[in-house]
Amino acid sequence: MKSEYAAKGYFVVKGLFSKDELQKLRSVVLAFHASWQQKNASFYAENAVNSAYLTGREHLDEAGRKQLFRFIGSSRLMDIANSFMNRPPAFMNTQLFFDPVNKLQKNYWHRDPQYHLSVEQQQAALAGPDVAHFRVPLVDEPGIELIPGSHKRWDTNEELEVRLEHNGRKNYHDLSGGVKVALAAGDLLVFSANMIHRGLYGQDRLSLDILLCEPEPGLVKFADDACLPSREIIKTLEHSAAFESTIHLKAIAK
């Protein structure tokens, strides 16, 4: 996994989670999704393709939050994270990916940092600390399209024009280097947030993403305090180090 991630920026572990595990996780995720849709009805109907902050209190009760924390802090997930990340990871966020309501809505190529960094900063970030998505599809889905190796190199002219919509190009135009990775329920896809990628819509996709990062104050600042576990919950986790790292780094930054 480590060599594959270093070279390509992603890897897939097939069939990591059982049907029973997915059923329990799916019930919590659907409870969150139903509440989120109700409170974000306009955004959901217009152009949403994801939501975030699943471990917060707004949309889930304490039982649901505890279940998510235990899933994230499980030995199985954290052992994989520790096997390839350069340093023991910190918890950053959770996201839920779904199909847009508008079936004609296009997917789009992007690097995650482009939404808060300048082009020059995006380029510099390729040599900096990493953020990784741990994607758990809850149903079989088309998956994601990636540009392998782009987590460590800057865009080609074609990629930059499409991603940033320069010279008449659109961010949904096909890229010659794209590799499609289909996912089945129970798989785990791990990919770098720095790499050029786009989601593939269809089959009523429903994927939980857990974002883990290297323990850097500049990254954990994006972690919402309301989405972190209490000390009581931390004591119940198989692996709590990622949460504790975030809590510690946020505390010393205040």
Automatic annotation (TrEMBL):
What's in the keyword line of the UniProt record? Dioxygenase, Oxidoreductase
| Gene3D superfamilies linked | q2cbj1_9rhob like domain (2.60.120.620)
Annotated GO molecular function terms are: 2-oxoglutarate-dependent dioxygenase activity; iron ion binding
Q: Record's Pfam families?
A: PhyH (PF05721)
Q: Which InterPro entries match?
A: Phytyl_CoA_dOase-like
SUPFAM superfamilies noted in UniProt: Clavaminate synthase-like
Keyword Transcription in the entry? The reply is no
Cofactors (names):
Fe(2+)
Its protein name is Phytanoyl-CoA dioxygenase family protein
